[in-house]
Amino acid sequence: MNMKNLIIKSMMLASAAFSATTLAEKAPDFSKHRAVLAYAELMTHPDSDEAGGIIVYQRDKGNGQLGADFVYNDPRRASFNGGEANVNFAVDDTSMTSDAGMSSQAFWMRDSVHIWNRETCSNMRMDEVAHNGNRGVVERYFEGQGINADWGADLTQVGFRSAAEFPAVFGGGSNILGVTFTLTWVDENGAPTDIDNNGKADVAFREIYYNDEYEWSDSDAVAQGAIDFPTVAIHEVGHGVSAAHFGMIAVKNQRLFAKPRAIMNAVYGGQLRDLTGRDSGSHCSNWAQWPNG
Question: What is the extent of the structural domain holding 113?
Answer without folding.
Answer: 34-287
